[in-house]
Records
---
Amino acid sequence: MTITLIAAAAENNALGKDNKMVWHLPDDFKHFKKLTTGHAIIMGRKTLESMNGPLPKRTNIVITRQKDYTYDGCTIVHSLDEALAVCNNDDEVFIIGGGEIYKQAIDKADKIELTRVHTTTDADAYFPEIDTIKWQLTKEEYHSKDEKHKLDFTFQTWIKNN
C-alpha cells in the first residue's frame, strides 16, 4: 500500500487559518479529486468539519481523540495506525490533513503530492518541512495565475528515497 500525503501549502508551508483554506484554486481541487477518487482518504476531525462532511466516491476515515465521536458516511478511528489498518485493502491511501495529521504521517509516507502555492501567508496550520535528503522531487507542473486563480502554483510529486 502506498501512503500519499496530499496538500496545498504556501512557500512558508502554511496550510490554513481558523480551519479554512486561505486561497481558492479550482484547478487544485480538480487535481485533488482526480488523484483521490476511488481511494481511502484519512483526515483529522477538524479537516472533516471544515469540508462540511465526507467527500463522495472515497472512503472517508477520520482520526479523533474524542471516543464517542460519530459522523455519517465516515469511519472513525483514534490513531494514524488504526486508520492505516482500516485501509489495508487499498493500493494507495491519501492523508489529506490537517497539519497535525501530516506531522504524524510524513515518516510513514511513500509519496507527497504537494500543490506549492507561490505566496507566504499567516496560518495556524502548517505542512511539515520536506527533508530533501529523505525525499526526491520527481515531477513539477507550474500554473500561472489567471482569472480563476489569484496565485501562481506548482503541482509537485515527491517520492521517498529508499
Note: The first strand starts at residue 2 and ends at 10.
---
Amino acid sequence: MPIKIPDRLPAADILRHENIFVMSEARAASQEIRPLKVLLLNLMPKKIETETQFLRLLSNTPLQVDVELLRIDNRPTKNTPTEHLDTFYRQFETIKHRNFDGLIVTGAPLGLVQFEDVLYWEEIQTIMSWAKTHVTSTMFICWAAQAGLKLIYDLPKRTRKEKLSGVYLHDTLDLHHPLLRGFDDHFFAPHSRYADFPTDFLNQHTDVDILASSKEAGVYLAATKDNRNVFVTGHPEYDPLTLHNEYVRDLEQDGEPKLPVHYYPDNDPTKKPLGKWRSHGHLLFCNWLNYCVYQQTPYDLEHFNLQSFTSVND
C-alpha cells in the first residue's frame, strides 16, 4: 500500500522514480479505507532530505499511511526554502486538537547543547506531553531519543567526549518482541551522535525493554512496556552517503574529524561506502507501524480518548 503525501512535495517525484507507490491526494480521497495518520516532527536542518528519508521507510508497508509534516518554530533556515516550509509544514497550534496514530520525532544537531539551552525546549516538552493523550505510539530518533528519555524518566544528559560516527554491528536481544519480528541475530545500523546510551545506565534508571545494542555503540533500540514510546538511538533512515556528507561538512568546518568507523571500504574516504542497513531499517518501521500503531490504534481516531492508552510512566 502507498503513502499519501502532498502531490507537490519534492519527495513525491524522488520516491516515484524509485518505484515506490505514492498515492495522489485525489485518489486517496476516493478510497474507502482509513489510512494511518502519522505526524513527522522534523528537527533536522536539511528538511527536504530528512523528510524524503523517512517517507521512504514509511512507504514499505501494506498499510496506507497519511503523513503530515510538523515544524517546531518559525525561525528562518538557510538549509530549507521558506516557501517549502510554509507550503508543506504545519504549526503545532493547527493540529493540537487532533489525534494521530503515530508520531516520529527526528534527530537534531544538538548533541553538545544542554536541554535547557535548546531554543525550542519548551515546545518539545509541550509536544511530548500532548502526545501522551493524542498519539498511539511515538518513535524518537537519535537526539529525540535522549530528549524523550529525559522527559519520561528524567534522565540526565550524558555526552560522549568524542562523536560516535559510523556503521555498527548490533545484537538482537529479543527476537520475540514485535519490533524485532524478522530481524537477524545481528544487524548493522548507522550512528551519528554525541549522546551516550550505556545498557547498564538505562537498566538502572528506567524500566524500558532494551531490544538491540552494540558493544561499541551501546543501546540502539528500546521501548516502554506498552510500546507507546520507542527509542532509536541511531539513524536507520540515513542514505548510504549521509555519513560521508557529514564527514565532509565537519572536515570543512573543524579540519580534523575522525573517519566514520566501519563505513568506508578499506577505511578510505575516496571509496564509495555501501549501505548495509537498509533492510533492517525498513523492517523496523514496518514492524512499528504494524504492531505498535495499527494493531493498537482505534478505528474512530478523532473521537477516541487516548487517555486510556496513557503510559504506565505518566
Note: Confidence is low (pLDDT under 50) at residues 310-314.
